[in-house]
Amino acid sequence: MVGPGMERERERESERESELEIVLRRVGLPPRVSARIASMGLTVEDILATPSRELASKLRIDRKVADRLIRTAAEVASTPKPASHVPRRRILSLGVRSVDGLLGGGLSEGSFVELYGEPGSGKTQFALHLCVRAMLPQERGGLGGGSVYIDTEGGFSAARLREMAEGQGVPPDLALSSVRVVRARSVPSLMASLDAADGLVREGEAVLVVIDSLLAPFRLDYRGMGELAERQHALAEALAIVRRTTARGGIVLATNQVVGGREKRPAGGYVLGHAPDVVLSIRRSLGLRRILGVVDSSFLPEGEVLLAITRRGLEDVDEKL
Ligand code: ATP
Ligand code: MG
Description:
This protein is α/β, with parallel strands linked by helices. The chain folds into two domains: 4-84; 91-315, 3-Layer(aba) Sandwich (Rossmann fold), CATH 3.40.50.300. The chain has helices at residues 4-13, 19-27, 31-40, 44-49, 52-59, 63-78, 97-102, 123-135, 158-168, 172-178, 187-202, 216-221, 228-247, 269-273, and strands at residues 91-92, 107-108, 112-117, 147-151, 179-183, 208-212, 251-256, 258-259, 265-266, 278-284, 289-297, 303-310, 313-315. Helix 9 packs across helix 10 (172-178). It starts with a helix and ends in a 6-residue tail after the last strand. The protein binds adenosine-5'-triphosphate and magnesium ion. Magnesium ion binds at residues 123-124, 153, 155, 212.
């Protein structure tokens, strides 16, 4: 007989057991289904993010079993856990004192960051710089990991990446091999790229996903007010993939264009407006100088700092710049 005491004992024994293992044990799936889940690399977040019908067909199980699996995953995910079980989020430093100060040390793993600004303000430069910083070892403020660059506007430049890598002391060939680039012009190809990027984060092949820019494919594929509802629906779908990636600890940076006359605001309306953890703005100042601001964040105060864009990437401003 297994009483509640025994059950608790077993749970305690399995403190090292992953959330997914706990879910599988509780649901008691046939071993071949558990093996299928393992080989697909599904996580508890994936199970929660997948509609029941889709999960059933993916795993070739009954709808009722899929429902039970989702319910159990929800129970396990919402059970308060000891703080030691909460995954520790590392911080990706930008290596620029002013910017790191503004961001409370840098960008935290698991965050979705939006960066908006006018053409030529430096969004792509910021994104490339972040890719280079991500591959630096942790003791130099990086995460020691690769990036995925989803280029929707054709702004990615391998030559510029190489130049920045040299500037940051990263072997340029390493930089070119650890940033994977994919061109996505349409919404379906963006969705496929986001899915692929999510897979790379899951496999530990990437720690950062850049979408430069997020809105461009939506603007091409959906025109005018008549298609606005459809566009927002598709955008919400893309953001659901982004959330899956951040739930695994990946950092997602989405650049965004601005709209509006005097009062500039990021494109994308309501759906994008509430999704990011941090909204940053960038604008031109004198010469190489730029002003980076925190516009909206649940954990950072609003503020602005100066930085410079140079051959080496982003830098602190000194008298020369
Ligand atoms: P868009 O919305 O058009 O994509 P953006 O915000 O992505 O614009 P970037 O391409 O990031 O803009 O920035 C371009 C600016 O970056 C150039 O105008 C220049 O000032 C600066 N820049 C680009 N390359 C270098 C370099 N090698 N050295 C110094 N500054 C550079
Ligand atoms: Mg750009």
